[in-house]
Amino acid sequence: MSIDSILHLYRGFYYKMPQFMKTFIGSVYGKIPLSKRFGDKYTEQKEILDNYTSMDEKKRDEFIYNKILETIKFAEENIPYYQKSFKKAGVSSTDFKILADIEKFPIISKADIKANLEDFYIDKFEKPIAYYTGGSLSTPTKYFQPLYTSRAKEKVYNNYFFEKINYHYRDKTLLLKGREVSKPDEDIYWEYEPIDNYFLISNNYMNSDKFPLMFAKAKSFKPKFLFGYPSALLSFIKQSKMYGYEPLDIKGVILSSETAYAHEVKIIRDYFGVDVLTQYGHTERAAIAYRVNEESYSFMNSYGATRIIDNEIVATGFDNKVMPLINYKTGDSVSGDVKYIEGTDIALSCDSIEGRTQDFLVTDDKRLVSITTMCGGQHLPLDQISNIQYIQSEAGKVKVLVEDQNKGVDPEAVILGMKQLVRDGVDFEVELVDKIEKSSRGKRVICKQSLDIEKIRAGVV
Q: What is the number of structural domains in the chain?
């Protein structure tokens, strides 16, 4: 077991330590080389990535084929769910002869995993660690990752992506994502994390009168980079402008964990005058991609094979000997031009990743309207709106929560803007609120969709 794996299991104790103890312990630990902290799995994954990025097209295709075959064989030999589903579909690993043959194997969904979780994983080869993903659905889905491999692999790929904008591991970074760090009774809304050299500020207090305190602390830290949710970065910019603060002098911005819309990336890039790297990943860790500024997203098929089916990302993850995912419907949709490996639906790049397939509104005649369309902004008074959330449980009817902290939003203007975006088929009800609650980790929830988008898309309902 690697040092990181042990400490990750007991991270709760570390977070509760007094700051001076965390600073001392974390600073010492953070300076240990990653290959020592994460062990052999880190070295192994870095070698895989380094080799993959230096390969020609033919060698890369061979690599992807061999990794898919390895995953199929492992699932076939060890995972009860796949043993049953492969048999039912009349396929086996011997049927996987070329890359395009991945299309022969069954597709799985979150619903399949929820209904058959015990048959999806084993603890024979590596210690499983549980993760949950919920998105806009009310009941989260539970997944298991291999403790040693998963964290090492994620660190390797994140560092590879971040270096695209000249970030080097442990560069001073202002973090606007993750766990809540505020201690209101002590008037503290920040925390220093020495292991990765992050300074965290509270997303939950970003739009409060505590922002000047938070900004002063962030500025004194002198970060080189900002790393966070797009919504948190936008709030930081809006508050900075409201108080008349100059932009922080930074070298780049990293966005992750939320859909980053094109107009949001432009706002962030224009404000700070630096490159913006957007990372795509998900809790299930079966697919990963990145883009710089307005470039296309590049999928890293050394991490997992990424297919695009009906504009949805369907992934086969690699190196998971706890709960392998094969032809897994991620629920994340893409748009624009997609480039594929020749003769397959395995994607190399796409223009845009729009987030969950649940992030659609449904008109009264069962048409789907992407939230991306609603976030265009050209018809909405966005200068007055701090945050927005769509709630739907009935086709053709949508409740819109609008965060109106300055009490200047006209609900009728919002409804008019919505109707211009959707044209027809949806009745909007706007409710002005002081605050829209975020997830437990401070992420925005832009759409709470109770209707089954997949069934509507398939014409089942």
A: 2
